[in-house]
Amino acid sequence: GSVWIYANVITGTGNISANGGPGAEDNDADLRPKDPSSAGGGGAGGRVAMYFKQNSTASPFYGRHRAVGGASQKEAGGAGTVFLYHMVYNHRTLILDNGNNPEPTTRRISDFANISTLGLRTFILPESFNSEFAGNSRNFSFEELQIYGHVHFLIYTVPVGAVCRLFFTNMIGDRTGFIHLAANQ
Question: pLDDT of 36-70, one tens digit each?
Fold first, then answer.
């Protein structure tokens, strides 16, 4: 799912989330867990985007935006994305946080051409390349990139290996995440 907020002024308190659902457990007739390897994977986190001109809350919403992947006995879902855009200061923040779900079963990506087998990853997909934030190309720029909770992040290009750039001024996080790079990135 997704949440898109466009407002002149943000005020108040609360949480904004687009979290993924938990993976289905494989239970027997008495609802006792069977083999965890046959359980379903967790759903991926969604997208949260908030565009604003003034943040009038007592404290910023930092830490209250979430798009965490769903838990699972097998493999959790990948984190979604939280995009905050302060329109007056032209300040763009991308937050990737998977809530300390476990890491993917494999860290290394050996084949960028087949992403259907890559669980627990956060992608920027080709559909995002024509946005104003990508300069209507494959160039993504953020003033802040925040990575937490074992996030594995990559930009998926079609064709695989097409030139792509990710620019950020500040990187913040808990040192548990990865940025995966393919050829020409």
Answer: 666 677 888 999 999 999 887 655 554 467 888 88
Check if the beta carbon of residue 119 is closer than 8 Å to that of residue 98: no
| Among candidate residues 168, 162, 139, the one with its CA nearest the CA of residue 182 | 162
Residue 93: CB atoms within 10 Å: 20
Over residues 107-124, the mean pLDDT reads 80
